[in-house]
Amino acid sequence: MGDLKKLLEAFIFAADTPLTLDRLSALLEQPRADLRPLLSDLLEEYGPGRRGFHLAEIAGGYQFRTDAALAPWLRKLSRERPNRLSSAALESLAIIAYRQPITRAEVEYLRGVDSGGVLKTLLEKNLVRILGKKDIPGRPLMYGTSRQFLELFGLRDLNDLPTLKDFASLDPELEEAVPLDPDPVD
């Protein structure tokens, strides 16, 4: 059992993307049920705040992540520019994350401006993906967030997105906010 735990740890450490339980099961040729308790042990052992990194369950898998408080120091290690998004891109990304699947016209309706360039940028950065075509005249493309979106923001799945109540705790004025019309475009 100890060697299996070490192998789990090594696979997760060596992978450049989160590894799902199914993938780990296939790599180790072990049933998922045998791996779950070992992963729970590792999640506890490598919990946040104990070291400069922790094991996180994100994007449907497991990945070692560095402590966010250490980011200014770790930037010295990388020569790459940090991945930054404009406020227009963040706004569009938030709309897509909360309203997916959504068309470009619906994003533009909610933002009040053309969003073609922003959507193109989000697609190029693999934060958004095309989910298919909407079954209405013109068959517009429908957009949704990608697995890379979940990884970048450290989310297990879309249920981890903050709710309006979470935002209201930051700004009491938001508590009285009226929810958006769920179907703005006919």
N-to-C SSE string, H for helix and E for strand = HHHEEHHEHHEEHH
Proportion of β residues? 5-15%
CATH topology of the largest domain: Arc Repressor Mutant, subunit A
From the spread of the alpha carbons, the general shape counts as: globular
CATH architecture of the largest domain: Orthogonal Bundle
- What name goes with the CATH superfamily of the largest domain? Winged helix-like DNA-binding domain superfamily/Winged helix DNA-binding domain
Rg is 20 Å
Number of domains: 2
DSSP E strands, number: 5
Alpha-carbon distance between the two ends: 57 Å
Main sheet attributes: strand count, strand direction, barrel closure: 3 strands, antiparallel
Percentage of residues assigned to helices:
40-55%
Number of helices: 9
Mean pLDDT: 85
Low-confidence stretches: none
Describe the structure in your own words:
With 186 residues, the chain is α+β, with helices and mostly antiparallel strands. The chain has 9 helices and 5 strands. The chain has 2 domains: 2-75, Arc Repressor Mutant, subunit A; 87-176, Winged helix-like DNA-binding domain superfamily/Winged helix DNA-binding domain (Arc Repressor Mutant, subunit A), CATH 1.10.10.10. The strands form 2 sheets. A 3-stranded antiparallel sheet has the order 3-5-4. 17% of the residues are buried.
